[in-house]
Amino acid sequence: MNAPAGHGWDKVEYWSSYFLLAVLGSVILTRLGFAGVWSMPLLDIVLGSIALLLIIASPWIARRRNVRLTIVAYATATQLVPLCIRQPVVLLPLLGALIPVAITIWALVALSRKGRTGQGTGQT
Length: 124
Fold this sequence. Notes:
- This protein has helices spanning 5-33, 42-61, 65-86, 91-114.
- By secondary structure, the chain is an all-alpha fold.
- The model has no long low-confidence stretch (mean pLDDT 82).
């Protein structure tokens, strides 16, 4: 009944990365949808379109973890970097948002180690 710790962590990473890809895809799709309403720089449209195509193709091309994480990083960068370059004042709220992200990553790493023998199980 008890699965190895690596198996459970792999499933958490797998599903959370695909959930993150779905959220990023919906953000990029919404942003590209509004490109017809408000003017949007051509570079943003091209980078966003490439990111959206990678997200849509990710179930087929991103079978390995590092490929999925690369697609997530690229899609995130296409949304954040142009925004921060054009409006540097946005950097302060983004830095503040890193605090709960860091806490979440710390908690996920701690949970991934919990099932290992002798580490973080609470037993002495």
